[in-house]
Structures are given as C-alpha cells and as structure tokens.
Amino acid sequence: GAVVSQHPSRVICKSGTSVKIECRSLDFQATTMFWYRQFPKQSLMLMATSNEGSKATYEQGVEKDKFLINHASLTLSTLTVTSAHPEDSSFYICSALRLAGGDLTTDTQYFGPGTRLTVL
Amino acid sequence: QKEVEQNSGPLSVPEGAIASLNCTYSDRVSQSFFWYRQYSGKSPELIMSIYSNGDKEDGRFTAQLNKASQYVSLLIRDSQPSDSATYLCAVNTGFQKLVFGTGTRLLVSP
C-alpha cells in the first residue's frame, strides 16, 4: 500500500477561527489529492480536487472562499477552514492519488487517517 | 446523477462464515472499482481494486465484477470478528474521482 498522513488528527476551535489541516503522501509523489468530508453515519462526500501547482477544483455547493486549498508540493496539500462555525464540525479526510503509470483507470486513492474538527 | 448503491445492513454473519457484500452502479462507462473498509471513527482503508470482469482474489477477499449487469461484489471467506466494519464500494467515474456508496455495515459474531 501507500502511506498518507494527516495533521492534526483532532482539533477543537472556537467559532470564527481558522483551522489548517495538512495532508502528506509519505512514500510517493501525488500531483492530485482529494479532500472529503464525512458526517456521522454518512458516506464520504468529495469537497474538492487538489492539483499540485494549480487551483483546486471544488464540487458543487462547496464554498471555495471558506475552504481554502493549497497544493504547493508533490507531497503536501493543505485545507484551511476559514471562519469556522459549528456546522463545519465534521471528519475531514484527504486522499492522495497514486498513479499506476499509463492507465488512468488503475490509479488508486489512498486515504489519510482523517482530522476530526469540532467547532464550539 | 452517478450513483453507487449498497445495502446499509447490518449484515450479520457468524465467525468462519462467508460474508457477501454487493454494490450496483449507474454509470455504465465506469472502468475501475474499489472496496474500502472503514472502522468506526477511522478513515477508509483500501481492500481491493478490480478493473476487469470476473473474479479477483487476495487472501480471504474476492472481488467480483460484472460490467454488463453493473454490479460489483466482495466476498470475505472465513470471516473474523475483526472484519466487523463498514465496507464502502467506490466507483471511478472519470477524471480519477470516486463516487462512494453509503456503505454496508458488517457484523461478525464470535
């Protein structure tokens, strides 16, 4: 498999503050990473696709000015939740895309351990 | 709307039995399919990937794909209590994005 880390694993913050979450691919380079959000007893919902060296692509309904994504290197993507509110409390999970080489259909996403955000 | 459907369960099997998990998808052009296991409070962990029709075996796990019928399944042989988790079916619908099913909760009783 492949190793993807996330930091922090858990964060509690006050309403109105900003929180930065880091996602790192430790043993492979990832030009593409994905950010998901998961509410209790629900499946993963894709928020955005993070591309190294270019702007992120956001899914419909996700506010790009609230969820800032930066993918400055081939091993690091960051998600900043700006002006967080209690409704932003969720489990945020990143994944890194490991390329199989040539055949796009066999590229595989490996997930980080997730960050549990609680906004008071 | 590209959809991936799974029975939410729970699917209860005794230890040592075969657990069969099923998934259907709506986008006929989907090319790659994945099974992830997610323990409560944890992130998904890749179990199997499958791209061609037929069976793919890896240890106690066998993935089955039938593109004509648009379904993919996961068999777990000799189920163990540690296999108790939610199993997510994911389909690559293009541009390397995955669409996830809601997951099937598996309970393996000792």
Global structural class of chain B: mainly beta
Q: In this structure, how is the largest beta sheet of chain A organized?
A: 7 strands, mixed
**How large is the radius of gyration of chain B?**
13 Å
Write down the overall mean pLDDT of chain A: 92
Helix count from the secondary structure assignment of chain A: 0
SSE order of chain A, as H and E? EEEEEEEEEEE
Radius of gyration of chain A: 14 Å
The best one-word shape of chain B is: globular
| Large-scale geometry of chain A | globular
Portion of residues within helices of chain A = under 10%
Biggest sheet overview of chain B: 6 strands, mixed
What does this structure look like?
The complex is a heterodimer of chains A (120) and B (110). Chain A has 120 residues and is mainly β. Chain A is built from no helices and eleven strands. Chain A has strands at 4-7, 10-13, 19-25, 32-38, 45-51, 57-58, 67-73, 76-81, 90-98, 108-111, 115-119. In chain A, the strands form two sheets. In chain A, strands 2, 4, 5, 6, 9, 10 and 11 form a seven-stranded mixed beta sheet that branches. In chain A, strand 5 (45-51) and strand 6 (57-58) form a beta hairpin. Chain B is mostly beta strands and 110 residues long. Chain B contains no helices and eleven strands. Chain B has strands at residues 4-6, 11-14, 19-25, 32-38, 45-50, 54-58, 61-66, 71-76, 85-94, 97-100, 104-109. In chain B, the strands form two sheets. In chain B, strands 2, 4, 5, 9, 10 and 11 form a six-stranded mixed beta sheet that branches. Chain B has a five-stranded antiparallel beta sheet with strand order 1-3-8-7-6, with no helix packed on it. In chain B, a hairpin with a 2-residue loop joins strand 9 (85-94) and strand 10 (97-100). Chains A and B meet through strand 9 and strand 10 of A and strand 4, strand 5 and strand 10 of B.
Topology:
The complex is a heterodimer of chains A (120) and B (110).
Chain A: E1 4-7, E2 10-13, E3 19-25, E4 32-38, E5 45-51, E6 57-58, E7 67-73, E8 76-81, E9 90-98, E10 108-111, E11 115-119
Parallel strand pairs in A: 2-11
Antiparallel strand pairs in A: 1-3, 3-8, 4-5, 4-9, 5-6, 7-8, 9-10, 9-11
Chain B: E1 4-6, E2 11-14, E3 19-25, E4 32-38, E5 45-50, E6 54-58, E7 61-66, E8 71-76, E9 85-94, E10 97-100, E11 104-109
Parallel strand pairs in B: 2-11
Antiparallel strand pairs in B: 1-3, 3-8, 4-5, 4-9, 6-7, 7-8, 9-10, 9-11
